[in-house]
Amino acid sequence: MPRTTCILTDSSAQFPQLSFAGRDLVRVIQLNVEIGGQLHKEDSALRPVNLNPVATPEDSPRLIAPSIEEFQEMYISLGRVYDDLLVILLSAQLSDAYENAQKAANLLKGARPIQVINSQATSVGLGLLVQAAAESLSGGSTIIEAERLVRSMIPHVYTLICTPSLSYLHYAGFLDHAQATIGEMMGIYPIFTLEEGRLTSLDKVRNYRYALEYFQEFLEEYDDLRHITLLQSIPPNTQEARILRQFAQECFPDISYTEHAMNLPFSILFGPKAMSLIVVENPTDD
User: Fold this and answer.
1) Which of 14, 38, 95, 127 has its CA 20 to 30 A from that of 257?
2) Percentage of the residues of the chain whose pLDDT score is greater than 70
3) How many CA atoms lie within 13 A of 209 on its CB side?
4) Ramachandran sector of residue 215 (left: φ over 0; alpha: ψ -120 to 50; beta: rest)
C-alpha cells in the first residue's frame, strides 16, 4: 500500500478557497489568545471585531502557541492514521509554534517521519503553501516531493502589512512601548514586510488610501504571479479596496485575486485595524 501523509498547520492559516484537492489531508492545531491575563481558546466567542483598537496594559493581548506537549499529543494521534506528517506553521519570528513543533518532533524521533517547515508567512500566505502541499499529495506526490515544493515557494510569498495599531505590535514584541505610544499619538500608518519571516519596516504613510497606493506600486513590480490577496481591516475599507481590486483585475486578469477579513491570530499580532497585501509569485525554475 502507498504511504499516507497528513499535513498539520496552525489556525493562523487562511485558505482563499474552502475546498481544494487534498483538503481532507489537512489538520489544524489551535493557537490561543490571552487578553488581560485570561486565556481564550481560539474557537471561543472572541472575534477581531471585539478587540479594542488600541491595546492597553489591562488587555496585554498575546498569541499563545501550542505547547510541546500539545504537539506531541497531536503527532501521536495523527500517527495512528497516517504514515508521515508534514507540519507547516506560521513564521518562527511571529510565534513559538515552530520551535515547539520541532522540539516535539525531536522527542518522537524514530516513531515516524515528521517534517516541520517554518513557512516564514502567516494568514493566506501560509494557507496557500498548505494548499499547494495538499494538492501535490493528492496528485500522488511523496512527502519529500511535497516538502520540496513548499520550500521552493516560500521565498516567493510576499506579505505587506499596514497597521496604525502599534500598541499591538508592542505586546507582540515587535516595538518598544515608547515607539508604539508615540506612533499612535502621531497617527502614523507604518508599512512592514515579512522579510524571511521577520517583521521589517518599509515605509510610513498618512492613511489607508496611501497604503493601498503603495500596495498598487508593489504589484507593478511583478509580472508572473499566481495569487493576490487583500486582507481587510475591521471594519473593511470598502472604497479603497475596490480601487485595488480593479487595478489587480485589469493588470492581472488571469491571476486569482481574493479579499478576506483578517482572522483572530492576525489581529492579535498586528491589531484589528491592520491591512495586508499577500502576493505569491510563481517560483522560477532552477
Assistant:
1) 95
2) 98
3) 2
4) alpha
